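Throughout our pipeline, every protein is held as a single compact record rather than as scattered files. The remainder of this section carries one protein's record, kept here as part of the documentation.

===
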Amino acid sequence: MKKSNDSTALTLGEIARLTDGKLEGDPELVVTRAAPIESASAGDITFVANKKYLKYLHTTDATAVVLDPDSPCPRCAVLRHDNPYLTFARVLDLLYPQPALVDTGIHATAVVEETARVAPSAAVGPLCHVRGGAIIGDGSRLVSSVFVGCDVVIGENCLIYPGVRIMDGSRIGSNVIIHSSTVIGSDGFGFAEAPDGLKKIKQVGWVEIEDDVEIGSNCSVDRGALGPTRIGRGTKVDNLVQIAHNVEIGNHCILVAQVGISGSTKLGNGVILAGQVGLIGHLNIGDGARVGAQSGVAKSVNPGQTVLGSPARDIGLARRIEAAIARLPDLLKRVRKLENERSG
């Protein structure tokens, strides 16, 4: 079985053809690896998508660099494209094909209950447990030690990494990737005050994850208290993210590490939540909204708006407040000087 870090040798001509890039240099040159521009050597291909790395174009030992249409590169072959970052992502796909990770079929140590249905082209790896009524679609791969609860549906060509837990009733679309130790469909956090303490509110909903979603490691996506918790098509979720019960996330959103979203909050399409953003419950975050890192959001955010800070405010106001705070020590000195002059 091919290891995940094994690469494939390709000529620059092949890469240019497969990525629609414009090649400047010898098309017969061969690259076998990708590397950072500051440490790349012969046989490596690298890229520049951020202007602060342009200085390395004069010192790099790479065989080739993926670059914008205009920046000069005197030392190596160039693959030019309007979007170097996206093009380099495609180069990585070519150089490092996704390994199978697990063989097709059901491993001898896996437990697949009698009423579960596993497509013949799917793979259920060592020590997995697939409970009754679950459906595993064509080409989907459960690498190892994956738990799939009762009546779970997993679509086609999904990749479920070791240690993932998908609890009863969850519905996973096609082409979904879920990384290690994430839990899908755990109980939402709901309690009612009672005379003798806190009464747990039974969570009887489920989770729906649409096509082309990727969820990082050590995330928790809670089942709905009633009805679904939903993650829309193409959304990407980083590691260590908490998505509470009945949250609805639109299509093509980005949730960066350590985001926490409280129950019943709704995100539109194309929303970006930067690292460590926290949202209280029952908010509406409009299409295309942006929330800066470490922001605490206590009010709904308008479509297209960018907010920052804790409490989160429109970014223009937040920056003015930060600038004013930075001047406070000098302002305090001036006030004390005036007070001393008046008292003197």
Notes: Residues 10-95 form a domain with the Udp-n-acetylmuramoylalanyl-d-glutamate--2,6- Diaminopimelate Ligase; Chain: A, domain 1 fold (CATH 3.40.1390.10). The chain is about 15% helix and 30% strand.
